[in-house]
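Supplementary Text 2. Reproducibility record for the structural model of the 231-residue chain.

All settings were left at their defaults, and a single model was retained for analysis rather than an ensemble. We include the record here because the model underlies the residue-level annotations in Supplementary Table 4.
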Amino acid sequence: MKQTQILIIDDEPPIRRALRVGLEHNGYDVILAATGTEGLDMVASHRPDLIILDIGLPDMEGLDTCRQLREWGKAPIIILSVREDQHFKIAALDSGADDYLTKPFSSEELLARIRAIMRRANAIGTDGPVVTTGGLHMDFARRHVTVDNTTIHLTPTEYELLRYMALHPDRVVTHRQLLTKVWGEQYAEDVHTLRVHMANLRNKIESNPARPHHLQTEHRIGYRFRIELAS
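Retained model, structure tokens:
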């Protein structure tokens, strides 16, 4: 069975070494980069399964690095940063990150985040139905989403949100339900993170994200995935 390969992009050698030892001890294949430029080259040549990105790099602005990594592929990205303010965390998620970890952190917490993200990324290997409503078409067996016959590229987290909503159509799904199903029980109250990812998802699949047709808000409760009935 192929090992999960993790790319660590961090300019501090002690942190790179510590992360590598801890992850390899837990069965992961680890590759390293010290700069944003080197990290982008490693993504192009190795196609890692997951990326751990330190936001404070010497050669590139951290969020720009995240955006460029997201353009290169769909590998989940965990941001590492000493910054704790919520606005910066939201900016990181907006830039394409799947999760955010504030330094210092425990190895157990990082491993739990990795396991949760990889479960979401790999869950789509199982067969599932095809859902079509309006111009939106979702083939869950192939993990393929199109809008008006144009392929839409979703992050693993965005895909899991859409998948869960689409498999519970025309039903109110609460914030807590989505957070626990997609992120895990420990994120049950993190409504801000959910809203950021939902906004990103709407920007990709809705013709007018400000007035969403498919992903509708139930004020202070959650969301509803609307199925358009054939006439």
